[in-house]
Every structure is written in C-alpha cells, then in structure tokens.
Amino acid sequence: xxxxxxxxxxxxxxxxxxxxxxxxxxxxxxxxxxxxxxxxxxxxxxxxxxxxxxxxxxxxxxxxxxxxxxxxxxxxxxxxxxxxxxxxxxxxxxxxxxxxxxxxxxxxxxxxxxxxxxxxxxxxxxxxxxxxxxxxxxxxxxxxxxxxxxxxxxxxxxxxxxxxxxxxxxxxxxxxxxxxxxxxxxxxxxxxxxxxxxxxxxxxxxxxxxxxxxxxxxxxxxxxxxxxxxxxxxxxxxxxxxxxxxxxxxxxxxxxxxxxxxxx
Length: 264
Known about the structure:
Elements: H1 11-14, E1 17-20, E2 23-26, H2 30-43, E3 47-52, H3 54-62, H4 64-72, E4 75-78, H5 81-89, H6 100-113, E5 118-122, H7 127-138, E6 144-148, H8 157-167, E7 171-175, H9 180-192, E8 196-199, H10 203-208, H11 216-220, H12 224-231, H13 233-261
Parallel strand pairs: 3-4, 3-8, 5-6, 5-7, 7-8
Antiparallel strand pairs: 1-2
Helix pairs in contact: 3-4, 3-13, 5-13, 8-9, 12-13
GO molecular function: hexosyltransferase activity
Organism: candidate division TA06 bacterium DG_24
Keywords: Glycosyltransferase, Transferase
C-alpha cells in the first residue's frame, strides 16, 4: 500500500464521542470517517469500525453483549438520520449522519489512488463477488484481494478469518447483518490480521443492484430508507415502520430513566 502523509487524526476529531442510550457514538461527518480509516490503515494496528442506525440502537438497547462490543470498537458512526434526529431529541449533539454506504464508491476511488486493498466478506453466495466486479470495473486500479459469502457456520469462521489473513488486505468490509457481524468481528479481528475491519451491513447488495446510482437528493435528504422500503416492503416494513416507533419509545424510556436518576 502507498499511504500519503496527512491522514493523522487530530485530537478534536478523535475525542468527539457521545453517549446516546448507552451506546457511545463518534460525532463525525463522512469526510472524518475517510480520514479515520486512512489513519488506521497507516498505523498498522488492528481497528474495528462499526455503525449504528435506528435498528441497531433498538438491538443494542436489549443486547448487552452487542452494546459492549460497540463501546469497545475504535469507531462507531451514525449511519442514518433516525439516530441523528433521535439523539437531538435526547439532547445529544451529533452533527450529521455519515453517508458511508452512499459514499463507498467515492471512498474506493480514493483507496485506489492510495493503493489501499480490500477484502469483501458477506451476503449470499455471489453477491460480494458481484460487488467486487462492479467496483473494479468502475474504478481501474482498485485492488480487491478476495471475496467470500457470509453463509458459513461458526465452525468455519476461523477458516474464513485465516483466508482473509492470507490475503493481506488493508481493509476488510464485513456485511453479515447486525448484530452478528459485530460479534463475529470482535471475535475474529486479531486472527484476520488486517489494519481495518469495517462492518458495512447490506452494502454488497446495495452495490450489486445498482443502489449506488440512486439520485443524490435521496441521500442528501436521508430518504434512502424510503426507497429500500418500497423496493422490498415484505421484508422491511417491520424494521422501518414498527421499528422506528419502537426506537422513539426507547428514547422516551431513556429520557425518563435519566430524569429519575438525575443524570445528563
């Protein structure tokens, strides 16, 4: 890899982490995410990068192991306007959502220029491979060291981690679904021996189905979820409609607890 100087984290960016419903979230913007990723690649240590949206927050509310893993991650960013709006309702300052999924193609162009290599892990068989093909066709010079689907047993997990280690990829993108991907990364990150392991959810399906070509206005307004809901209402209606109401109830409950205990 060829990493230019100038990707050092400044202390102001590094220390902006806020507590929202018991989850510590880094108060960063999309460009800050890119700089943090490049800084992690450059220092060569093992780093775990994760995200939260309204669905993640609801899961973390009742899953203490997942909540602990998020707390111990090197970086947790808000990937969804629901988290930003919800945090503001709770009096927590998050400047903006991080549009990581929509920005991934642009990130990959910059990765190619810096000779940062990738490994794609997750989704159904063939999806990560298709996403890699789209990325490498769209971005000459981007190096994808390998791909692997996400349908493997817990017993096979160590072999998958060893495969990734042998690839010597700089950044591993893991899309296994929340919270399994975070738990798998926490258990296997050292074995993969890559500077950055980045949980990315359904990004491979997003890429392979042309989602990255959606109008920028949807991204700017934070309305990609509406597009996804109408694209797959049968599987997503509960998450986006019922789930968002449950998320608001979690915020209300969290505020009630804070008021009773005098915290905040």
